[in-house]
Amino acid sequence: ETTTESLSQKEQDQTGEKEIFEEDERLLQKCDYVDEKNKQEKQSENLEAAKEEQEKIRQLQWENKQLKEKVTEKTLEFEKMLALVQQIKRKLRNSLEKIKDKDVLPKDMRVEKRRLHEESNAERSRCDALSEEVRRLREMPGHESCSRCEGLKNERDSARRKNETLENKIQEWRSISEVYLRQNQELQENLKSVKEEHGILQLSSRKLEAAKEEQQQKIRQLQRKNRDLGDKVTEQTSEYQKTLQREKKKNNKQLKDCRERFQEEAQANIASLENMIEEKKLLRKEIKAERSKCDDLRKEVKRLREMPGRIHNHKKDFDTNGVVYALAKNVGGPNSIQTRITATRSSDEEGKATDILVNRVDREIVSGTMAEKESWWCVDLTENYALYLTDYTLRHGNHTNGSYFLNWQLEGSLDGESWKTLSRHVSDRGLKGKERYQTHTWAIVGDHSAFRYFRIFQTGKNSSGDLGIFLSGIELYGVLIEKGSQC
User: Fold this and answer.
1) pLDDT averaged over the chain?
2) pLDDT for 212-229, tens place per residue?
3) Phi and psi (nearest 5°) for 482?
């Protein structure tokens, strides 16, 4: 059974190694995936930076386009304003020409008016002279009307009518002159307004010229900036292409190296797996052989159990019914070499390891191991015997009541290497008592196999808080089987 367990443990270890190998392969793939992801993220960051630069360039180009459109609109507005100024100038020239024409007409009218006024004054003077002559003639003594007087009278009346006609004509010309004066005043006001508008238009024209010059300056600056950005974009694009090519070559080389390394590792792993498969096949064969041996051992155990053995029952502590007492009596007999029971321990501090085999309660023996962790004390029934343990007795091995056993476990083995726990004790105060060399017996619970070796294994400190085992006696009870006997 122990061999089968060892083979099963070996198979489990190989299965565990295979799982570890698979886990390593999975971690390697994960690392490759993480490296590839990091490379992609780096390339993505470079692409994002390039996209941002291109977006900035597109934004600047769009702004440049907007400015060009604004400049074009301003230029069109300026051209419209210039056309409007030219139109207003033409209207102004026409108005000035009309005003000049109208100024010439009042001058002629004034000349004609002065002429008519002079003629009227002359006629009035003439009429007055004639009237004076007529009055003088009338006042002359012996005056009588004659044809000459009638002629003068008619001439006077004609002069008066002519004078009235001239007065009417003068009045008419005066009315016309007033109308022309009002029109001239209106035209002067219009001319003043037109001159003011002309000044405003000239100021607007100068402002538009300045704005146009400023916009053209901005356009030139933007064109220079656009050229600089274009050169920068071209340079960055070229640098990016070079960097991309370098990264691509580097990634291809790394990918090639990883692929070759992975292929080598895969081939090595395949070879290792093939070796493991071969080992597993061999292990299965060994397991099959060991199972056959186990079956034989089970048959042997069954045979041994069916053999007539000696039963050693416990009546009192360290009586004469114990196995240790029975086997220790054979020492010095005809079969003393084959039946000599032995005892060993992890270290020697007080007494000897075989002190626990002396079945004498009246003898005060101080015996113990060194104060070390995992101390132990073992009894070997020799290769001729195996014991189905039912009870065991221990005796304290110190001349004081202190340092007695508290924490230990009783173990059994067939080969002295693989141990099975039969009884476990934690803070067990069975060896505590008022008398020195206190004894105590414990029953073994459960169905266990027969064992050749029995070991007391310390698992904790003793009652004094120290390490080390103090024992001066041990006794075993149960069914003792002699391996050499036949059914």
Assistant:
1) 80
2) 888 888 888 888 888 888
3) -95, 120
Smallest CA-to-CA distance from 357 within 373, 374, 380 is with: 380
* Alpha-carbon separation of residue 26 from 17, 18, 40, 262 (angstroms): 14, 12, 21, 12
User: Which residues contact residue 312 at a Cβ distance below 8 angstroms, ignoring those fewer than 6 apart?
Assistant: 321, 322, 323, 326, 476, 477, 478, 479, 480
pLDDT over 70 (residue 254) = yes
Nearest to 352 by CA among 462, 471, 474: 471
Q: Round to whole Å and give the CA distance between 306 and 65.
A: 110
Strands (E), 85-217: none
Encoding tokens for residue 171? 């009045």
Q: What percent of the chain has pLDDT over 70?
A: 84
Nearest to 455 by CA among 374, 398, 385: 374
| Amino acid in the structure at residue 400 | T
Q: At 178, which helix (H) or strand (E)?
A: helix 147-306
Name, in order, each residue with C-beta under 8 angstroms of 4's C-beta and a sequence gap of 6 or more: 287, 290, 291, 294
Strand order in the sheet with 420-425: 342-345, 376-380, 453-458, 408-413, 420-425
pLDDT at 389: 94
Q: Minimal CA–CA distance to 173: which of 110, 228, 90? A: 110
Output b/e per residue, 19-43; b: 16+ Cβ within 10 A: eeeeeeeeeeeeeeeeeeeeeeeee
**Contact in structure between 291 and 4 (CB atoms under 8 Å):** yes
Distance (Å, whole) CA 370 – CA 413: 24
CB 323 within 8 A of CB 47: no
Nearest to 88 by CA among 76, 100, 96: 96
One-letter amino acid at 479 equals V
Residue 112's contacts (CB-CB under 8 Å, 6 or more residues apart) are 173
Q: Position of tokens 């999975």?
A: 26
439-443 and 385-396 beta bridge pairing: antiparallel
Instruction: List, in order, residues 6 or more apart from 88 with CB less than 8 Å away.
Output: 194, 197, 198, 201
Whether residue 477 contacts residue 391, with contact meaning beta carbons closer than 8 Å, is answered with: yes
Share of the chain above pLDDT 90, in %: 21
